[in-house]
Specification:
elongated; three-stranded antiparallel β-sheet; mainly alpha
């Protein structure tokens, strides 16, 4: 391998020719996303970047009244209750679910309008 690497030479890339208009880019046609909007969307996308969390959100949304007990969420995803609770906490922190303790069990509900809000913010940021 050492001999092959020594025989290789770097070929310089040609320089790009700037556009004849004197600018390299077209001007903005609308305002870009504000930093706070970008942070909010990134936090939600980070929460949804795990397939288990997407599945849990979908399961909660599919339950009657869009509410499910953590005891009903472990079997469908095939994970232990502490792991499921960890994933649910991330979804709560992202503003997608709420958590209510009822005796021994925690119940999770879809935040009304959360998904519509995120879709609207994303559309405004990149649309």
């Amino acid at each position: 391998m050492r001999g092959k690497m020594a025989a290789m030479t770097a070929t310089p890339l040609p320089l790009a020719t700037p556009p004849s208009t004197g600018t390299c880019c077209a001007p903005l046609t609308r305002a870009a996303a504000e930093p706070e909007t970008a942070r909010e969307l990134a936090r939600v996308f980070k929460a949804l970047s795990d397939p288990t969390r997407v599945q849990l959100l979908s399961i909660v949304a599919a339950h009657q009244d869009r509410e499910a007990c953590v005891c009903d969420l472990t079997e469908p995803v095939g994970l232990a209750q502490p792991t499921v609770s960890h994933h649910l906490k991330i979804l709560v922190d992202a503003g997608l679910l709420t958590r209510e303790q009822r005796g021994r069990w925690a119940y999770y509900s879809l935040v009304p309008g959360a998904l519509d809000h995120i879709a609207h913010r994303l559309d405004a940021a990149v649309g």
